[in-house]
Design goal:
single chain, alpha/beta, seven-stranded mixed β-sheet, five-stranded mixed β-sheet
Length: 461
């Protein structure tokens, strides 16, 4: 198969760039080096490349081919703050407090590069009609990169899209279920400082307001639908006990299975914040950071990708890789439960393909925004030990290891195989579009980020 030859030939370069991104992890909207390395490489491979795409400094659009189907491959490359980790089976940061690839986005970026190289080879060698589009999407970890891109016009020229992510399993992400969307906002309370012992009556505590908001939010939980999740973290809470705080900030996520439920709950949360400010005679300023949609998977694409997972040869794990993964499994908080359930009786790294999953997931991804614009499905392939928790040091350790790189190459081949099936039989794209139209029921995508919210600019990590 042409795509297999192309991806195998590119494998050293794909691993080299993935390793560089692991060595140089960059957080959301700061992926300057990753953007440069990927765009330069794709340009060298004959793609027409645009950086700073749709106004996002670290976004990339790379195109090859002409005609339909137009298949987009979504890439991400941002790291998580504070998750630095060495390539070893014990927890130890490379640099304390530094970012790390604890979600494996260095692999995600390069699996997508590998996929488009394979797709290009299929079209070239078989002289098929079709266009390959690589879309480098910043800032998935703050769940707004693709929403900013969509707000500014991205994705609408695609017939369909694939996304890939590293995982503990070889599977399709919630093929018949839903992952939550969300809204993200920081509530800044402003009061009046005073001596907490000498004249507290002259103070108006911003911290009191933030705490009262949290009390109100926790009471609100009883009166929302069961799919809603509300969680928060204090960003600022005063400086010393003997000073009435004049500033306090709390960061909230509101998640739910539909945009309607998200927006309804978020509006009620805003009322809680305003009520807290009124009770404490403080002021509240709301910094809306953005939001994303719930997922909307496409069964036609899910089945095509699932067949590709079965058709493509899976990685063969070495004894050294198995031993490394086994040590990682033993340190997982779920180790005892998984072992008791027999889930760790076989290979410590997934070596099989799951059946299509029919479960809801309560995490979120901004891939959901793309799924409400064009038919789109996300797949996962094993890039870490079976018991690795999400966003963990174990994932970071594997993302710079041969385990991660093998899963990355497998993911690239699966996406390229599925795309090749569609290029050869465009009726698959037509059926996916018909399913998408039925699921949308006449609704159109409305970006949750207003135009007045600026795209963040890169800064030093």
């Amino acid at each position: 198969m042409p795509y297999l030859k192309a991806i195998d030939a590119a494998q050293p370069a794909l691993i080299d760039i993935a390793a560089k991104m692991w060595d140089c992890p960059e957080t959301a909207f700061n992926e300057v080096n990753a953007c440069k390395w990927i765009s330069e490489y794709l340009a060298s491979q004959g793609f027409e490349v645009e950086t700073g795409y749709v106004g996002l400094p670290t976004a990339i659009k790379a195109t090859w081919g002409s005609g339909h189907p137009v298949i987009g491959i979504l890439a991400e490359y941002d790291a998580l703050p504070g998750m630095s980790q060495k390539q070893q089976a014990t927890k130890e940061p490379v640099v304390v407090g530094a970012p790390g690839q604890a979600c494996g986005h260095n692999l995600l970026g390069m699996a997508s590069v590998g996929a488009v190289l394979g797709m290009k080879a299929e079209l070239e060698e078989k002289k098929l009609s079709g266009t390959v589009v690589f879309l480098g999407c910043p800032a998935e970890e703050v769940l707004t990169g693709k929403a900013f891109m969509a707000r500014n016009g991205a994705f609408r020229d695609l017939d369909l899209a694939f996304s890939w992510h590293g995982s503990t399993m070889n599977t399709i992400t919630d093929a018949d279920g839903v992952m939550t969307g969300l809204n993200s906002a920081i509530f800044h309370f402003k009061g009046r400082t005073a001596h907490a012992g000498g004249d507290p009556y002259n103070g108006r505590s911003a911290l009191d307001a933030a705490e009262l908001m949290s009390v109100g939010a926790n009471y609100l939980r009883e009166h929302v639908t069961s799919d809603v999740r509300i969680h928060y973290s204090y960003k600022e809470a005063g400086t010393a006990p003997n000073i009435v705080p004049d500033r306090a900030s709390v960061w909230y996520y509101v998640r739910a299975m539909s945009r309607e439920a998200i927006e309804d709950t978020y509006d009620r949360l805003v009322k809680v914040a305003k009520g807290a400010a009124m009770m404490t005679e403080t002021e509240v300023e709301i910094e809306f950071l953005g939001g994303c949609y719930n997922t909307l998977n496409n069964h036609v694409l899910a089945e095509t990708l699932h067949q590709a997972q079965l058709d493509v040869e899976r990685p063969v794990w070495t004894e050294e890789e198995k031993a490394f993964a086994a040590k990682l499994n033993e340190q997982s908080p779920t180790y005892a439960a998984m072992k008791a359930a027999g889930k760790l009786d076989g290979c410590p790294i997934c070596d099989f393909v799951n059946e299509l999953q029919h479960n809801n997931g309560y995490g979120s991804t901004d891939v959901g925004d793309v799924m409400h614009i064009v038919p789109c499905t996300q797949i996962m392939t094993a890039t870490c030990n079976l018991a690795a928790p999400g966003h963990s040091w174990q994932i970071a350790a594997c993302a710079g290891n041969s385990i991660g790189f093998k899963g990355m190459i497998y993911g690239a081949k699966v996406m390229a195989d599925a795309a090749a099936k569609i290029y050869e039989d465009p009726t698959i794209a037509e059926r996916a579009k018909a399913e998408f139209d039925e699921a949308m029921k006449g609704k159109t995508y409305k970006c949750p980020i207003p135009m007045e919210v600026p795209v963040p600019s890169p800064r030093n990590n």
